[in-house]
Amino acid sequence: MDVDLELGMNISCKELRVLLLHEFRLGHKTTEATSNISSTMSKDALFIRTAQHSFNWFKNDNFELDDLPRVGRPLEVDMDVLKQLAEEDSRLTT
After folding, report:
1. Which residue among 4, 34, 38, 74 has its CA within the 20 to 30 Å range from the CA of 26?
2. Which residues neighbour 30 within 8 Å (Cβ) at sequence distance 6 or greater?
3. Where are the domains of the chain?
4. Confidence tier at 93 by pLDDT (50, 70, 90)
């Protein structure tokens, strides 16, 4: 997932984690890290809770920057398959 910034830039979650890791290694607190990143990127680029979550991972020596695989329903729907299913069983559309 990317975060759209005011200047038309996109920043990925991985890039945001790199910035947070940099702030963590500088010894900054989460509030200071959030303020620093928000002042240079965008005021909406980062929430304090996101910084806290990442800092907790870093404190436990987990420096994985990539998103972990998730289970559950897919994020995208194949519209052709959905249309075919609806045509096969009209009860699905009511």
Report:
1. 4
2. 48, 51, 52, 55
3. 2-68
4. low
What digits encode the pLDDT tens for the residues 20-40? 999 999 999 999 999 999 988
Distance CA 45, CA 76 (A): 24
CA dihedral 50, 54, 57, 62 (to 10 degrees): 140
| Residue 56: both structure tokens together | 């907790």
Whole-model pTM: value is 0.64
Residue whose pair of structure tokens reads 């809770």 in the numeric block: 49
- How is 65-86 classified by DSSP, letter by letter? -SPPP--SS-SS--HHHHHHHH
Amino acid at 56: N
Handedness of CA 12, 60, 52, 73 (dihedral sign): positive
8 A C-beta contact, residue 45 and residue 16: yes
Phi, psi angles (nearest 5°) of residue 43? -65, -20
